[in-house]
Design goal:
2 copies of one chain form a homodimer.
Chain A: H1 5-10, H2 31-38, H3 43-48, H4 50-64, E1 69-70, H5 77-81, E2 87-89, E3 93-95, H6 103-107, H7 112-117, H8 120-133, E4 139-144, H9 146-155, H10 163-171, H11 173-197, E5 201-206, H12 214-232, E6 238-242, H13 249-253, E7 259-261, H14 268-275, E8 280-285, H15 294-308, E9 312-316, H16 326-338
Parallel strand pairs in A: 1-4, 4-5, 5-6, 6-7, 7-8, 8-9
Antiparallel strand pairs in A: 2-3
Amino acid sequence: MKNDLLLRVARGERTERPPVWLMRQAGRILPQYREIRSRLSGFKELVETPELACEVTIQPVDELDVDAAIIFSDILVVPEAMGLTYEMIEARGPVFPKVIECLADIENLIPAADAAENLHYVYDAVALTKKELNGRVPLLGFAGAPFTIMAYMVEGKGSKTFSKAKQMLYREPEMAHKLLNAITETTIAYLLKKVAAGADLIQIFDSWAGVLSADDFQTFSLPYIQRIAAALQPLVPVTIFAKDAFHSLPEIAAANCNVVGLGWTIPVAWGRAQMGEKQVVQGNLDPCVLYSELPKVKELTNNMLKAFGPHHIANLGHGVYPDTPLDAVKCFVDTVKEFRY
Amino acid sequence: MKNDLLLRVARGERTERPPVWLMRQAGRILPQYREIRSRLSGFKELVETPELACEVTIQPVDELDVDAAIIFSDILVVPEAMGLTYEMIEARGPVFPKVIECLADIENLIPAADAAENLHYVYDAVALTKKELNGRVPLLGFAGAPFTIMAYMVEGKGSKTFSKAKQMLYREPEMAHKLLNAITETTIAYLLKKVAAGADLIQIFDSWAGVLSADDFQTFSLPYIQRIAAALQPLVPVTIFAKDAFHSLPEIAAANCNVVGLGWTIPVAWGRAQMGEKQVVQGNLDPCVLYSELPKVKELTNNMLKAFGPHHIANLGHGVYPDTPLDAVKCFVDTVKEFRY
């Protein structure tokens, strides 16, 4: 591989500068993406067509010169492969016409091995992208954490509180564990195939970890993430990004993971102190910093890099917002690439 | 006052049990509220009619036997009094047809003293409720923190990220401070009149503090909250509830406040360790616990009370969700009232 900086850092090596990529770097910030997207029926056509997914995955590598590509896909392909189809509604987000309401709904889900077979379009996209990248940068794969996936499967759509999904944790904890277990098994089968197809690192997104108390996170979310990470770690490094789970950083670091993703509300020094200087971390510039004038983008990026020091993968603390100016994104990437420890 | 338990705890006294109330206790959880609401044109009619606001404020004292009433109102009456009217759209939330976009928009806002004069219906509701309560329990007043109010005034509606409001912090920090300053002055004038009308304690809600990094919270939010608290504290105790600002608990405690409100994601022992055993805290049961069977509601409430120990005002870690079963709310209140240190 020509540029394996990110993988070396993920495995604990010291390097002369941090690698850099952005969550949601393949997407609406790029005119090339918007051009392709405008020709298609919808978001899912892009996700489900390997040639198109490959093309938009490589766009940010060409345009931004980032140190990694991340396969263009969606965390919701997993519940769909398990039998719950979703629709992606413009400006509103995902909606599941059918949701999980009782034990029978869980028992009727497609079993792990078969569900993973339903996701060939993802493995094809990974294999094609791996070939097209031709070793320029690592190719990252990802999945949602079981709790986050469960939240959508029960709630049926995004929510500020996910109170319907959380109702199951409190009223039917055994049912919740049964569902979490089914999601975990499918996710493991899926990610092993994704790695076999060529993914060089896997990131687990627990996007809704922040709605859980520390106890509930450690009961209903982290143990399942840990099982997934354990299944993958002999093969590839694993990043866990449990957004807003500030209360459980040492537990996350201990859960078979190589890299801990940090949201922008975690103060760098505080996060470091929770996990030690040697823990590899990823993040965590506030995505809104990229609305600033360029000298300020540069200044705040440099401040973050200095605060983290080595064992750091530079990124934002959340996916880049779609209306972020491209020149600010480029300024962020270039600032990291010019930085030296 | 017949039951001044909450005020004694807020001022630092040790008592034999914690006082209890619930954020949003006057609202859709009560059949009496739903009955009144069904007869009205909308939410704002309730807020703006002192007799009705008084009636729904007292309902939870009658029905739940809580240790405090909180005046039925909305944090958005302040921006409205400053010149930005809002509409409350069912199942969607508040919408401001006009928003703050430039310096002239800020200069055109109604000045503090005049804006505070526009809120007579609130003072009338407070005075009437105070009279009707006849000393049964303290009457709490509240306002939004300036950053939260600013977020609505710039964004024009609720948002997961408030990225448009935050854009102003990064691109036009001086304009943001100008707006925050105007909101602060109006809020102080408003709250002084609310206290004069009879409010016994004031709670400041920074509902959107969680979208800010620690640095930004301490630059754009906390100093303004601190100014408000300083203006009120000679008169009444002040509670600051900056939801999700886990990174700044010691700073919040030091900001002229009597009581620090905690969301449910703050582990009790950790929160206590940040601020010391003597700091009065309020919270923090996960509102979703009230979806549990009653024995579990009781168990988890008792666990929370034991974990906090004295110098604690029992509450949820967020406003009670509208679909919470009334028997679970009663079980929560009764459990606290039976508890002894």
